[in-house]
Amino acid sequence: MGRHRGNSPDEDDHRPRRRSGRSRRRRGRGGAITAFAAAFAVLLGLGVTGWVLIDRQGGCGREDISLKVLAASELSPVLTRIASSFNAGEHSLDGRCVQVEVRGADSANVAYGISGAGPTMGDTSSHVWIPDSSLWPSLVERSTENAVLTDTGTAVAHSPLVLALPREAAEDGEATSWATLVPTDTATPGNGGYDVRLIDPVRSSSGLATLALIKGAIGDGQEQQARLIAAFQGLQQGVATDEEAAFSALSGDSGDASPVLVLSEQAAWRYNNEHENAPAHVNYPEGGTYTLDYPYLLRTDDPLLSRAAEAFRAELTGDDAQSLIRGEGFRSADGTADTEVLRSEAGFQKEIPAELPSPSGGAVEQLTRAWNQLKLNTRMLTVLDISGSMAEAVPGTGLTRMNVTTQAATEGLSLFPEDAEIGLWEFSVRINGDLDYRETVPIRPLDNEVEGGTQHQALTTALAGIEPKPDGDTGLYDTILAAYREMSRTYKADRVNTILVLTDGNNDDEGSISLDELLTTLEEEFVPDRPVAVISIAFGPDIDPEPLERIAQVTKGAAYSTDDPTEIGDIFLQSFALRIADTGEEG
Q1: 113 pLDDT more than 60
Q2: Rounded distance between C-alpha atoms, residue 431 and residue 473, angstroms
Q3: CA-CA distance, 575 to 222, in Å (whole number)?
Q4: What letter would DSSP give residue 498?
Q5: CA distances (Å), origin 328, targets 234, 246, 277, 346, 414
Q6: How far apart are the first and last CA of the chain?
Q7: Biased composition, Basic residues: where in the chain (predicted)?
Q8: What confidence score (pLDDT) does residue 479 get?
Q9: Spatial separation of the C-alpha atoms in residues 392 and 98, rounded to whole Å
Q10: N or C: which end of the chain has fewer CB within 10 A?
Q11: Where are the domains of the chain?
Q12: Residues 252-256: contacts with CB within 8 Å, 24+ apart?
């Protein structure tokens, strides 16, 4: 990474008080030779191996070297104790004592604060940063080139991700893997029959790693996109804003029954300490898991502060410090656990669980962007073709094209949260005076009360009652332009504004605008910072996909086509996947 002094606290700005009550000792010739040899050893050691020679015999007679350390909140209490002992030992560099100050900080807040790109901004003033996971520095690397951030290659602690669930549920449950948390029915968002909870991935390493692990279990490829979306949606329904909310769900305080929570071992141990009346049992997913690795990162390029940071790093990796760290529910970097702390009766295992490779910086960025895109509230106008050809039978189903389409649209409503705003138009040719379209259900949130029911129910009823217009033609182009203008006029910046067109035919309205006129108008009226995407699903043997593809290109939407109307349901999911598909390349 690049170097930028402004990202690291200036030593002179944080100069501590001069130590008092200590007399300086004069050195004779022998002392001078000893001091020269020690200095030479320090220089040689730093240049070759990176080790630091520390004077543990006192002799601090000048200003202290103040080393500021930001550590993950759950790790900072034990590091504060270790730092207190370290400071009492009067570790001296060049006759100046190193004094370590540890502060707890949310890892996500620090990462976003350093990079300047994120939903939160935290305290970044430190010489050493110990986040809970290497995911955060990798995210910083992708976001900025100006941060002073050096990986020392040292992990202060380890804590693998586990599944924590109420003890009663654990006794009845089966062996779990990340794949078992993936929904088997993409039309019904959920997570493999489990009420899976995780902490918001934008703010939590465990949550972010869970997304990567589930994505890995699903696999890559266009055909897997629907399963990924359904899994993400199921997770979003039970996402906890922070650890306190997650603990509340696990303990039953929030009224939830038998949730499965993705936590680190240490967080599960901490939960049990705080909830003795509702302890959790830990399960280790088959096939391996991701491990929080608490990397020791330098945030200074000052030579003296770097030596002080190296001294404290050496302290943290020593036997005494590691014993204290294991006593707080962590493992050492080699996987060693304190079995008197992580006890088997709670499900904790002594053996190191198989560690899956951590996601790359590019994958982390992609996952967070996908999660945020999917989390954005939806505002969608569904535009349904009711031309005469929609009455034709779909071979082998006993259903008409209209039946298959309205069933897929009805099932598709379950993909959206209840605050999604969705409306319905139908179109053919001149079905509303001289207009080719008419509003069937206005755009409203799905949970809005409408005539004794909800908008969701109103849409379901309307879809069930739609009938094709006998001998009706397809006024596609005029309808798309009208829908585009209506959605642009009523655009909402906090939502994804989309038009979904469901049709089995090509434009055959002789009185409509031409395709070229439509494309030119859409190009002229498209506003990049107020986008309205046109997504079309066309089905049937007579479809010409090119016009819809060109419309999608102009509006940054997508066009799907199939000869088989029974595939509409799967394509509906793929169209919804467009919201997270274009999220950047993995690096």
Answers
A1: yes
A2: 10
A3: 11
A4: E
A5: 33, 20, 20, 15, 43
A6: 16
A7: 16-29
A8: 98
A9: 83
A10: C
A11: 5-158+293-342, 161-292, 376-581
A12: 252/166, 252/278, 256/195, 256/197
Please determine whether the domains at 5-158+293-342 and 376-581 fall in the same fold group of CATH: no
Coil/strand/helix, residue 346: helix
Rounded CA-CA distance 366/398 in Å is 43
d(CA 486, CA 496): 15
CATH T-level fold of 376-581: Rossmann fold (3.40.50)
Phi-psi category of 125—alpha, beta or left, where left has phi over 0 and alpha has psi -120 to 50?
beta
Q: Is the pLDDT of residue 568 over 50?
A: yes
* Residue 44 confidence (pLDDT): 34
Query: At 197, is the secondary structure helix, strand, or coil?
Result: strand
The one-letter amino acid at 482: A
Q: Is 46 exposed, middle or buried (0-12, 13-18, 19+ CB in 10 A)?
A: middle
Strands 96-105 vs 159-166: parallel, antiparallel or unpaired: unpaired
Name all contacts of 333-336 with Cβ < 8 Å and 24+ positions apart.
333/154, 333/155, 333/156, 333/157, 333/158, 333/293, 335/158
Q: Which residues, at least 6 apart from 133, have a Cβ–Cβ distance to it below 8 Å?
A: 107, 205, 209, 292, 293, 294, 295, 358
76 sits in which H/E element = helix 76-88
Taking residue 324's Cβ as centre, other Cβ atoms within 10 Å add up to 16
| CA-wise closest residue to 279 among 313, 250, 237 | 250
Q: Most distant CA pair in the chain: distance in Å?
A: 111
Length of the chain: 587
Residue 44 neighbours by CB under 8 Å, 6+ apart: none
For the chain, the 3-state helix, strand and coil shares in percent, each to the nearest 5, are 40, 20, 35
Contact in structure between 404 and 446 (CB atoms under 8 Å): no
Strand partners, 196: 260
Helices (H) then strands (E): counts for the chain: 18, 21
What stretch of H or E contains 501? strand 495-503
Q: How far apart are CA 554 and CA 523, in angstroms?
A: 6
- In three-state secondary structure terms, 20 is coil
State the DSSP H helix or E strand holding residue 561, giving kind and residue range, or none if neither: strand 558-562
What is the predicted pLDDT for the residue at 562?
86
CB 436 within 8 A of CB 427: yes
**Residue 148: C-alpha distances to residues 14, 30, 133, 152, 507 (Å):** 18, 41, 18, 13, 59
Interval 101-123 mean pLDDT = 83
The whole model's pTM is what? 0.68
Instruction: Give CA–CA dist 312/295, Å, rounded.
Output: 14
Classify 5-158+293-342 by CATH class.
alpha beta
Across 196-205, 270-279, 411-420, 495-504, least confident range: 411-420
Fold annotation for 161-292: D-Maltodextrin-Binding Protein; domain 2 (3.40.190)
Helix residue ranges, H only, 196-291: 205-218, 225-237, 243-251, 265-274
